[in-house]
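[job 0417] fold request received: Deoxyuridine 5'-triphosphate nucleotidohydrolase
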Amino acid sequence: MRQIETKIISPLLGKQIPLPTYATEGAAGMDLRACLEEPITLQAGETRLISSGIAINIHDKDLAAVLLPRSGLGTKYGIVLANLVGLCDSDYQGEIQIAVWNRSQQAFTIQPGERLCQLVFVPVVQVQLQIVDNFSQSSQRGEGGFGHTGRH
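[job 0417] inference complete; emitting structure tokens
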């Protein structure tokens, strides 16, 4: 298992609020929790930045971290990430802030330590764009865009 340098930003983390962990052996993402001293209420349609309590140093340009919403919060309560997917580049070393959006019509109270999103590490391939007039090979799809294969 790879190791990622992690700095604890909040004194709550590791004491009142559990450190980020994988919930199961097969989990792809580790849960990031609301690093709060007291509950906060997110009104319908409101967006807030919530502290995760950690900063990471990936230190490898071939790796990035993404924040993904928790399916249960989104499906049951309308609580998703404001930018839908967050991205931590390999050279970002600041605190991970969780941009939470209440897309529902009801207020939602976030409890201290509540699992808000998942942190997933993914490989990155940087490329150089090669400008051409025509592609060297055409695909079966070609320029077929959104919905070109139909609904079923």
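[job 0417] notes: The helical segments are 71-77. The chain has one helix and eleven strands.
[job 0417] exit 0
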